[in-house]
Amino acid sequence: MELRHIPVLMEEVMACLNCQPHQTYVDATLGGGGHALEILSRTSPDGRLIGVELDEEAISEARKRLVPFGERVTIFRENFAHLPELLRTENIDYVDGILLDLGLSSIQLEELERGFSFKGEGPLDMRMDRRRSQTAADLVNHLPLKDLEQILFGYGEERWARRIAKAIVYEREKSSIRTTDALRKIVHRAIPGRFRSWRIDPATRTFQAIRIAVNEELRNLKEILETGWRLLKNGGRMCVISFHSLEDRMVKEVFRRLGKSETGPFGQEAVMRVITKKPVTPSEEECMKNPRSRSAKLRCAERV
User: Fold this and answer.
1) Is the sign of the CA dihedral 73, 76, 81, 87 positive or negative?
2) What is the pTM of this model?
3) Is 192 helix (H, G, I), strand (E, B) or coil?
4) How many CB atoms lie within 10 A of CB 119?
5) For 233-274, what is each residue's pLDDT tens digit?
6) Which long-range contacts (CB under 8 A, 24 or more apart) does 70-78 make?
7) What are the angstrom distances between the C-alpha of 158 and each of 4, 201, 202, 210?
8) pLDDT tens digits, residue range 71-121?
């Protein structure tokens, strides 16, 4: 079965996780199962993998791909912020490694009805977990102006947050904004022409910000970073692949804090050792083969 989503930094992730037989690993963003497949292959014959994923379609693809590994695989459709509770249900106290790949998958980007992409027309949805009731359309059409502006600036680092928020409010008073193309056009009109960069679409930051808000991505990431290290055995590693500066900054700051004795939790000694002093990025060859990997940054820390 060919993967619809190409996992990024595969060799670099495997080197950081140091996968071995007899060990247990968590792929907390299972996606289509690309990284999980490699972890299971490298931990043969008896390594175990716990997969966590919110997206039902991604889980369906991962299950098909991981069938050969049988009972070595356990998959939860759940938020990775709840990982401590999930491991307890499996009577697992500690694991040997945790992987977080925070990027959107091709599965999500290529299906216009999911509403993640502005490269075509689809409903303003953006839910990773479609059991949730609140969609991007709900936020865009009902949030007060000030809240919209704060989301665009805080989560998208959008310079033109105020102009875009005002444009959204103006347009929704005339008619509801229901499609990705409609929102994209509003953003384009709101940004002064001479400041539009066509290296990336001018709507990129707006879509990023709204997606983060819909899925509470930064809050969930903060929670797993603060609790995940407690689930690692001594020498166990946490690897995080981020795709924008807000995520990378959070990972860097938490790893750094957990790795400093003077700021360790409850005044204790350091609980993590940072393995990657600088983020690992894709090679030029990987970027050519998979352009979506170009903004990926991998950071790794080890439980001590």
Assistant:
1) negative
2) 0.92
3) coil
4) 13
5) 999 999 999 999 999 999 999 999 999 854 445 556 789 999
6) 72/40, 72/46, 72/47, 72/48, 73/36, 73/40, 73/48, 73/49, 74/48, 74/49, 74/50, 75/30, 75/50, 75/51, 76/50, 76/51, 76/52, 77/53, 77/129, 78/52, 78/53, 78/54
7) 31, 13, 10, 11
8) 999 999 999 999 999 999 999 999 999 999 998 876 777 788 899 988 889
